Every structure is written in C-alpha cells, then in structure tokens.
Amino acid sequence: MDLSLSEEQIMIQDMARKFAREELAPVAEQLDHSGNEEAFLGNLKKLAELGCMGLNIQSQYGGGAAGVIAFSLAITELAKACASTAVTTSVTNMVAEVIQAIGNEEQKQHYLPKLCSGEYAAGGFGLTESSAGSDPSRMKTRAVRDGDDWILNGNKIYITSGTYAGVFVVWAVTDNDAKPGKGISCFLVEGGTPGLTIGKPEDKMGQKASHTNTLFFEDCRIPASALLGKENDGFRVAVGELAGGRIGIGSLALGVGLAAMDYAKQYLTEREQFGQKLANFQALQFMLADRYTELEAARLLLMQAAYEKEQGNYFGTAASMAKLFATEKANDACYTALQMLGGNGYIKEYPLERYARDVRITSIYEGTSEIQRVIISRDLLRTVS
Amino acid sequence: MNINFSKQELAFQTEVREFLQDYNDIDGFLSQGPVWPQVRAMFSAMGERNWLALTWPEEYGGMGKGHSYEYILWNEVAYARAARNPLSSGVVAKSIMRYGSDEQKQTFLPKIRTGEVHFSLCYSEPEAGSDLAGLRTKAQLNDAGTHYVLNGQKCWQSYAQDMDFLWILARTGKQEDRGRGLSLFICDKQTAGITVSPLPTVDDDQLNEVFFDNVEVPVAQRVGPENGAWAIIGEALADERHIQFPPGRVRRDLEEMVDWLNAQGLGDDPVIRERMAHLVSKVMEAEILGLRVLEAMEKGRNATVDAAMNKIVHTLTCQDIPRMVLDYGGPEALVNGYRPEQIWRQSIMETIGGGTSEIMRSVVSRQALGLKG
Fold first, then answer.
1. Which domains, and CATH codes, for chain B?
2. Which residues in B lie closer than 8 A to residue A283 (C-beta atoms)?
3. CA angle B151, B157, B160 (to 5 degrees)
4. Of residues B131, B327, B357, nearest to A273 (C-beta)
5. What is the domain extent for residue A141?
6. Yes or no, beta carbons of B331 and A133 under 8 Å apart
7. Over the stretch A67-84, which tens digit does the pLDDT of each residue have?
8. ipTM for the complex shown
9. Tens digit of pLDDT for each residue in A310-354?
10. Which residues pair with A277 in a beta bridge?
11. Is A366 a catalytic residue?
C-alpha cells in the first residue's frame, strides 16, 4: 500500500497552490463583494492555459491526462483561495469528462479543445429543474425530433456558469412513455443558440462570483448531431457523471475547510486574551485537533474515491461517502474557525464569514447529504443477500 | 412550583401583544440598522406608556414593577421580531440610578424613559474582546482637573451609527490594574474627536469601530467613582440577565422555519420531522432556562450561572434551527433574502456577541461545578 502522491500529482498540486496564492487569493474578497466578471473570467482563462480545465481529459483533445487524483488535489488548492473559481473549474472538468466518456469522435474533437484551452470560458451541466432537484429522473424538459433536428422546451435551474458557458450538456425527456429515468437523453447545446435564454444570475449566500442561472429553452432547435451518447440512455450517464462531480465538490469543500482552519490556527498563535495566546487554551487546542483530524479523514476518503475512479473501478459509493463526509466536516470546520475568531469572524474584514457562506452550498449541490446517504445505504443493503 | 404568570402579568402580556399589532412588520430584531427610524418610533410609543421604565423606582418616574413585566415585554417584542431591548433604559439608566450624580439623573433619566435618547455601549476593543479587563482606551484627567481626555479604539459596537450618546468604558488607572483601573463615561456622539466607522457583517448589517482622538469629556460626565467601573458594569449586566436572550426569538425562528418547510412541501419528510422534533425540545429548553433566569432574579438569587447556561442553549438553538432547514431546504434556502439563509447568517453572531459560548462554558464549569482554573 502506498499513499504517497506521484511526482506529476505533486507538480499539479504545487502549480494550483501557487496560482491560488498569487492570482486568486488577492482578488477573492473583491470577487465575492462585487462579482468583478472580467477578473473572474481572466482567471478562468489562465487556469485553462495551465491545463486545469481538462485535467482528466486525454492529451489528444487538449487535456492534461493527469488523472482524477490530480484533479482532486488541484480543486482543493483552488478552493483554499476562491471557492467560486474552484466550482467553475470543477464543473467545466465534469462537462468535458461527459463529452469524453460518451461523445462521438467528432464531438470530442470539436468541443474538448475549446473547453480545455479556455476558448470556452466554462462548460455548463444542465440537469436540475425546479421540480427535479434531488430526483432528476422526474425532469420535465422535453426534446422532440423534428426532421433532422431536435426541439428543446423546458427550464433548467441553478446551472453553474450559465452566463458564460460556451457549451451546455443538457438532459431532456425523449420518450414520454418510458418510466422515470428510462426515456432521458443527453444533448450538447452551445451558448447563444436561438431559443436558449439565460436568466439573470441568482443572488446567492455564497460562491457569489460564480454565476448560477436558469436556462429557458423555448423551441430551441439543435441538430441531430447534438445528441450526446445513445438516445434514451442519458439518465444513466448523468448519474455516473454526478458521482465524478462529487469528488470535485468534496475536494472543493476540503479546500475551504482547510483555508478556514489554517487561518484560525494562525490567529490562535497571534491573539492574546487573559495574558496569554489563545493557542494556550486547551479547549481551543482540542477544537483544532478535532477539526484537522476530520479534514484529514475527508482528504483520505476523497483520495480513495479518486483512486477507484482512476483505476476504472466502481466508485459511486466511495464518491458519495467522500462527498458526504468532506462537505459536512468542512462546514463544521468553517463554523469552528469563525467562532475562534470571535467578533472578527463575523465581520467582512476577515475571510471567515466568506468561507462559512461559501462552504454552505457544498453539502447541498451535486447531491445533498441526504441523497448521498440514500446512495450509500442502498449500495450497502444491496450486498445483503 | 408554578411556572405560570399571574392574572395581572397575563393582562399585561395581552396589552403588549395588542400594542405590537402596529409594529409586527418592523423586522428590527434580526437587523436593526436599516429600520432604526421605525424602531425608534416604537420605543417612543413605549415611552408614552412608560414601558421603558417598567422596573424603575417611582422616584425616577418608573412603574416600580417586578422583573417579570420586563421579561414579558421584551419576550413579546422578540417574538414579534420588532426590536431588541434598548440598552439606554436598561444598562445605562439602571447604572445612573445607582451610581450617577443628581445632575446625570436629571439630565438623562427623563429622556431615556420617554425614548428620546439612546446609547451605544463602548466596551470591547480590538485587543479586548473576551478579556474585557485588558482594554486600553485611555481617559487621562487634564492638568486643570476639569476634563478627561480620551484616546483609543473600540470595536464591534452594535448600533453606534444610530445612537445619540456613547457609554464608554476607559482606563483611568494602570494597565496592570486590569478591571480595577477602569471608569465609565457618558459622551455625546457628536463630540469632537469621535469617529464611528462601519464594520460590515456577514448578515449585511453592521457593527462599528469607534475611535477617540483627544476627546474631551467633562469630569461631570464620569459615572460613579474613578476606577470603579468594573462593579458598575457587573451590576448592570446582572440587572438585565432576564431580558438579554428572550426565548420568544427561538420560538419564532422555529415557527417560521416550520412554515417555510411546509410551503416547500417538505413537512411530511420523516427525517425532517425527526429533526424538527429535536429542535422543538431545544426551543422548550431555551424557554424553561429563560424562565429560570427570571425566577432567580425575582427571588434575588445570583443568576450568573443560570444566565450563562441560558445563553449557551439559546444561542446554539438560534443556529441549529436555520442550519437544519438549510440541510434539507435545498438550493432554494440559500438564495439571498430568503428567511432561512438570513437567519442562518444572523445567528452566527449569537454564540460570539455578549460573551462567547466558550466564556459561558467556563463560567458554568467554574461557578456551577466548582472546577478550578
């Protein structure tokens, strides 16, 4: 058994860490407050140039072919500085992976270089609907065949990067008579396609710099070649890709949690009350020990899930366990760290309140904690004869 | 044992509820700054009924009632989300009655009673949060002996942007004298050398920093003896324990969250129902601990430990309720301005301000359990 990272993985981790420190950290607070879109998109472009938008994409399509572990490491490092940038990067990687996994050669050659190179600022993952959040099989968006084209009608909500994604992977019902989940297909819809309208960004609690939009499809006509994978086989793909996305979101949460605790740890060694450093108070020492232990366990669960995926093994349960644990413990870490800073934790002059807001969504999107528990327990009970 | 209010107290509760009909939509409890003019108007209307002086002795124009009346008033106001109890008619007025000069009593008590003037407490400093006795803002008597000259910085002051006067704790003795070297001052906020600067907070409200740059405060505006402030602020704190964390707030949180979950169609989810049942018991715990603080005060018992336990349970419940809703409410619960996410952000403050949970736990372990240290 060898838990150490490869040279390439360490190199990618270092590169992401350096970029996060030098480029993201200085602007993260400003992005949170003002949503400076130009700076945000500029950083996405630079990340693409560094190879971070297709970390697990084969090199012939412009990807880094660095693997899932490297992807997880990079997202954690980016999230330490700016969760909004990290989530956009994670989702774009996921979109690229869907195309790589089920796209035909023409689709891969057309879209993957654009996503990996930054020609597209981001990719969008169009699954969630207002009445189909935790249960996407109940989606209402329809795609109807019309000659050589498909016509899309329906809405998708809470879509990351809606404003600036160059291409969306969109799921829609193509067989009205099939059971839920059985008649869904997957399509590629380019940003700017007539009939696709992007709603204004949601005003969110956290991860404010990343745009989250509603997509409105009104008789949106796309060519037959936009079908991604097999007709009526889209739901299986969505479920599979969400499992990969969970590694990304768990890694992101880990980064935010570590950033919060690292800040609080430093603060404890500097601030004095009652004539001594806060770090001398055992109650605070134990809080520190507990949170770091939990975050380290989260890291190992994420590495385990990433390893299984990289090996081509079934990794759904491992990804759910890692996402559940990492996001919940990262939430705890952010609240603890904020509490350790006292009044300074609550004011916007310090980053702790941003970490706490940014981390909150992580146990909700990409499958809530409750959905992860459903997946884990279902897999566990399935093995009982 | 009887935990019910008397007929007279219940009649007063009814009167308060009727009064609040006109103020139910102020929404100044969770975030007072943006609606201060409305809150101020409500305090004035309370002043007309003499409700800001419920427990004051009659010689100061008060109603001479027991603590239970204050508890009922501010608990109902908290439940109505209208406002928090003003510090002027509590900490400030009660300290002036006990330690103030005749001139201070004549100048301030009538105006506080009617809701005409309001105070901001200036205690905490950047380096003196939990360790208040370590504060450094200096008040130095001038050579003529007529004025104190204040220099220093205060931090995390609630509502200072809107208040008329500052109630300032400053060092008149040596740093090493800690709590024994502090004095209290009243100062008009408009006095030259005072700067109030906003500290935006996670709930889109604000705290403040208050800077003192050679601020001249007449000796006549010192409250109580020089270097004698520690006992004054301790007694003032003790006077207010029954109304600091009124359980009406968490009861209302719970009800709003239940309404929200039902509106989202989540009310029949068994996991949510189980969590809600747990929260109901937490709210009841906060209610009973709130009453226990009141009972201690009414019987003249030291309520320090009861108040610390109440604060721990009350403020964690404040956080548990919205956190539970966000766990199950999906992304809708995270869109800005929705009640669950607003309360989630606001509640972060509750385990920090007014004595952190960690300080409260040390009070309980030391004073209730006798653990040394």
1. 7-85 (1.10.540.10), 119-227 (2.40.110.10), 245-368 (1.20.140.10)
2. 358, 361-362
3. 90
4. B131
5. 125-232
6. yes
7. 999 999 999 999 999 999
8. 0.81
9. 999 999 999 999 999 999 999 999 999 999 999 999 999 999 999
10. A272
11. yes
